[in-house]
Specification:
The complex is a heterodimer of chains A (323) and B (304).
Chain A: H1 2-37, H2 40-47, H3 53-76, H4 80-89, H5 91-99, H6 102-105, H7 112-141, H8 143-149, H9 154-157, H10 163-182, H11 185-207, E1 215-220, E2 238-245, H12 254-267, H13 271-277, E3 281-287, H14 292-319
Antiparallel strand pairs in A: 1-3, 2-3
Chain B: H1 2-6, E1 8-19, E2 22-33, E3 37-41, H2 48-55, E4 63-68, H3 78-82, E5 84-87, H4 99-108, H5 115-124, H6 138-151, E6 156-160, H7 168-185, E7 188-192, H8 196-202, E8 205-210, E9 213-219, H9 220-226, E10 227-233, E11 245-250, E12 254-260, E13 271-274, H10 277-286, H11 299-303
Parallel strand pairs in B: 3-7, 3-8, 5-6, 6-7
Antiparallel strand pairs in B: 1-2, 1-4, 8-9, 10-12, 10-13, 11-12
Helix pairs in contact in B: 5-6, 6-7
The chains are: A mainly alpha (323), B alpha/beta (304).
Chain lengths: 323, 304
């Protein structure tokens, strides 16, 4: 059965390996110089130990300019766990059904439940290995970027750690289920893509910010300072929202804030001084960088759970011979 | 009594299969002694494929039971699966597998698999082992599929329209291989077909399926001896509700009836003629209400 699984799915497996190999080559070619340029000077800027702030910000600007395209590439790579999972999952039943070979496969002396379980276990393992390798590769590549920007935002969180394997599994299960229903590989792949994008977008935008209650930072505004800081001071924290609140803690609207400008001018004082004098505070809702792994466990758990439900449906369908 | 049961290759009782709200098979009760070569005939959509898939465990019945050599194929155990060989319609094969890969597939997925036998069969047909299945002709693909099914050394071989996609030469070769296997191993065969002409040479058992019901089933010689054509003066009586009359056709002067009277002497004025297998099958197919009622002798009153 293992031989049969390999013989039938080696095309997809080798394609996925080839894509990963090419991607590794590209990321190494781009990533090694990037890692090299992320030198001592820049690290000092981030941890605040830099002596010369002027030199520091120049170095940082140069680095950001040269590595800016990397984040764009990484956003595109979001689709890779799906491609790997669905490429392997969609043909599992669909190809047997569209060519009629299910009748050949299930009339040998291997009971169909055994046939299905062996294949699912083997292909799930392959999917997890491939998407895990993908995540490891990206995690290495993004080390400087993570240090600089953190990895809780979409371009980091979605391609690092555990979640790519979860997405891959989910795509595999979607492909397998759609293949069982639609009986054609290509439509099954397309339907999986639509469902995958819908679920991923919903989870990332609606659920993920609420995995844990966000923390809120409240700060007074220094009188006479030139600008007002943004964020939590740690670039790796995931800022959900920020703004200003009055002395009672009531959060202020955009219009309120805009009116401060005029009032400060009328009062003849600096804006920050004006805000300081009126006990205006700055607040930030955020998830600290340290929550990265908690969030990874939760999100990976959601997608592994969804995949398990879909695979149970596939097994149930095959078992009761509804095909 | 138990030995009689063991001698049955196939036994179905009250078999129903429903897809959604449509009945594909209804109340099929059928027995097939082992060692027989049975033809399953019926128009398209009669439920032939459904019945065959139930026999090999690809489908589970909605109601009723199927037994193959006393075991239920629905349980899908390795034991029962290894006793049944199945060749599906259009003999599906993994097209990207070489013939040798397909033999390896057979070895990997079966408890017993006679690779040597399959190899010899394919050799003698001149089918190269390193050729991809998709590159073979339709006739060769059918032969490979048959060799795979036979290498399982099944006790029951089920074939769904094995001749449909073959040209006359390939048909002949296919039937030759099949009949060779029957002679060698005594395997019980059930195959569906709508090529009635070829059945008579190879089959000794007939099952006629119409609108999901079994219209007729039995040993071909017995069936032919039981049925006759009676030709006599044109009669206006409504004959369709007389049990022994399967079909009546009226010409200008006379009426021809297909009757199942067990060879009893006909009423005066009626001339008996033997019926051919084709006439018998067509008679049952044209008369959807006709069913297997056993013997009846009221034909003389009906004819009078």
């Amino acid at each position: 059965m293992i031989w049969l699984t390999w013989r039938q799915h080696r095309g997809e497996a080798l394609t996925a390996f080839a894509v990963l190999a090419v991607l590794s080559a590209i990321l190494l070619a781009v990533g090694l110089p990037m890692h090299a340029s992320f030198n001592h000077d820049i690290v000092q800027c981030i941890d605040g130990s830099a002596v010369d702030r002027e030199v520091c910000s120049t170095n940082l600007a140069v680095f950001e300019k040269s590595s800016g395209f990397a984040t764009a590439i990484l956003t595109l790579l979001n689709v890779l766990p799906f491609l790997i999972g669905a490429l392997i999952g969609a043909p599992l039943l669909a190809r047997e059904l569209e060519t009629g070979t299910w009748q050949l496969a299930w009339t040998q002396a291997v009971p169909r439940m055994r046939w299905l379980v062996v294949k699912v276990v083997a292909l799930v393992t392959l999917t997890v290995v491939l998407t895990g390798a993908f995540a490891a590769l990206i995690t290495w590549f993004r080390q400087p970027l993570d240090a600089l920007y953190g990895r809780n935002e979409l371009d980091g969180f979605d391609v690092e750690g555990l979640v790519p394997a979860g997405y891959g599994l989910f795509a595999f299960a979607l492909g397998a289920a759609a293949g069982g229903v639609l009986r054609r590989s290509i439509p099954a792949f397309t339907a999986s893509l639509l469902a995958f994008v819908a679920v991923r977008a919903t989870v990332a935008s609606m659920l993920r910010p609420h995995y844990q209650p966000p923390l809120t930072l409240v700060e007074n505004i220094d009188a006479g300072s030139h600008g007002i800081e943004i964020g939590t001071g740690n670039r790796a924290d995931w800022t959900l929202d920020e703004g200003f609140a009055d002395a009672t803690g009531q959060r202020l609207t955009r219009t309120d804030i805009n009116s401060f400008d005029d009032m400060a001018r009328n009062a003849g004082v600096n804006l920050t001084t004006y805000m300081h004098n009126h006990d205006i505070q700055r607040w930030v809702d955020y998830h600290p960088a340290s929550r990265f792994w908690d969030f990874q466990y939760i999100e990976a758990g959601i997608f592994v759970g969804l995949a398990a439900i879909l695979l149970a449906l596939v097994i149930w369908r095959v078992k009761r011979r509804a095909l | 009594m138990t030995t009689v049961m063991a001698d049955l290759a196939v036994r179905t009782e009250g078999l129903d299969k429903r897809y959604g709200r449509t009945w594909a098979l209804h109340d099929c009760t059928l027995t097939l002694p082992s060692g027989r070569v049975a033809a399953l005939v019926g128009p398209n959509g009669a439920g032939k494929t459904t019945l065959l898939r139930l026999l090999v465990g690809l489908l589970a019945p909605t109601r009723g039971s199927v037994e193959v050599f006393g075991q239920s194929p629905t349980t899908n155990t390795a034991t029962v699966l290894s006793r049944i060989g199945y060749l599906a319609q259009e003999h599906p094969l993994y097209r990207r597998f070489s013939v040798a890969d397909l033999l390896r597939f057979g070895r990997a997925c079966n408890l017993r698999f006679d690779s040597g036998l399959a190899r010899r069969r394919l050799d003698s047909l001149g089918i190269p082992l390193d050729r991809k299945a998709g590159a073979l002709s339709s006739g060769q693909q059918a032969q490979v599929a048959l060799a795979l099914a036979l290498a399982k050394r099944p006790e029951l071989l089920v074939l769904d329209e094995p001749l449909a996609s073959l040209d006359p030469l390939a048909r002949r070769e296919f039937l030759q291989t099949l009949m060779g296997a029957v002679a060698d191993d005594g395997v019980t065969v059930v195959f569906s077909s709508h090529v009635i002409g070829e059945l008579e040479r190879v089959c000794d058992h007939l099952v006629v399926l119409n609108h999901g019901r079994i219209a007729l089933s039995g040993d071909i010689e017995t069936l032919l001896a039981d049925h006759r054509l009676l030709v006599g003066p044109r009669t206006t009586n409504n004959l369709d509700h007389t049990p022994s009359v399967i079909e009546a056709t009226h010409a200008e002067r006379h009426t021809t009836m297909l009757v199942r009277d067990g060879g009893a002497p006909p009423a005066p004025g009626w001339q008996p003629y033997p019926v051919s297998l084709e006439e018998l099958i067509l008679g049952y197919l044209r008369h959807p209400a006709a069913h297997d009622t056993g013997h009846a002798a009221e034909h003389s009153e009906a004819a009078a």
